[in-house]
Task: inverse folding
């Protein structure tokens, strides 16, 4: 891998929590960091704060609501227009499980179940759209920030029309992300692009966790260590298609290794995002 100071890295969800700390750590090592957020003021405040703390002026902001597939497409177009070569993509942005009691089903702007849309469909689409830039930047890395909390997909109830649970919706979206990791790694197996998914830490002290559960088990710093390991370790130069529980390779939910289930998810995802059969084409 190239030194971090020579890399251009797109990181989603940088205005809070783990994403913000990861952006700060990458900037401190001299990377050109493309900061994504969905609130312009918070995004600009984040850029200014990171620049003040690190002295790094190679910071750019990109505004997009990942609950809108149109915004995802615009984000990809904007990044590619400015950076035809991209060294790393870290899909970090996400929606948590929400309230555990009395939660109502929420929708994306495209009328898909919100957690499936933001946590899975958005990175699915964004990653495919940015493959030309990642290919130009080889050797490059794709990192998906997942979760140890995973529930099997119900292909007959993908949008939770029945038996809705925000926590279960979150867990399903995170398993879908692992399944995508394995699928994409197979697609790119002959290229110098690695794809891995990481559970950074359990119940970190973030706003997203506190919205669901009134206690925490770990710190953002612990999660940061995990993400930075996947982002910077030369030991992982040729490691791809893996799920990590913090710093260790681990086994995801068994459905992740079901090729038939992954194929069905891929076909559904192509249809929902409008990618069609071209999604897995070069």
Result:
């Amino acid at each position: 891998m190239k030194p971090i100071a020579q890399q251009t890295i797109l990181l989603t969800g940088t205005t809070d929590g783990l994403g913000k700390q990861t952006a700060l750590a990458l900037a401190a090592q001299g990377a050109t960091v493309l900061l994504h957020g969905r609130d312009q003021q918070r995004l600009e405040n984040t850029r200014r704060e990171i620049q003040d703390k690190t002295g790094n002026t190679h910071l750019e902001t990109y505004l997009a609501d990942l609950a809108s597939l149109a915004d995802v497409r615009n984000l990809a177009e904007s990044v590619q227009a400015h950076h035809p070569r991209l060294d790393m993509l870290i899909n970090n942005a996400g929606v948590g499980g929400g309230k555990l009691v009395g939660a109502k089903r929420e929708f994306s702007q495209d009328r898909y179940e919100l957690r499936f849309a933001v946590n899975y469909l958005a990175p699915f689409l964004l990653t495919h759209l940015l493959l030309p830039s990642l290919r130009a930047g080889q050797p490059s890395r794709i990192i998906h920030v997942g979760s140890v909390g995973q529930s099997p997909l119900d292909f007959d109830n993908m949008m939770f029309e029945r038996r809705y649970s925000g926590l279960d919706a979150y867990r399903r979206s995170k398993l879908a992300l692992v399944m995508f990791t394995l699928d994409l790694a197979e697609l790119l197996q002959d290229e110098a692009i690695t794809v891995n998914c990481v559970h950074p830490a359990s119940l970190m002290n973030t706003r997203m966790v506190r919205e669901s559960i009134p206690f925490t088990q770990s710190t953002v710093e612990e999660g940061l260590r995990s993400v930075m390991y996947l982002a910077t370790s030369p030991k992982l130069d040729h490691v791809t298609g893996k799920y990590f529980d913090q710093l260790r390779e681990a086994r995801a939910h068994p459905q992740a290794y079901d090729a038939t289930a992954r194929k069905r998810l891929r076909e559904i995802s192509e249809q929902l995002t409008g990618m069609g059969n071209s999604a897995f084409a070069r």
Q: What stands out?
A: Residues 278-282 have pLDDT under 50 and may be disordered. Strands lie at 8-11, 32-37, 59-63, 88-91, 140-145, 193-199, 242-245, 248-250.
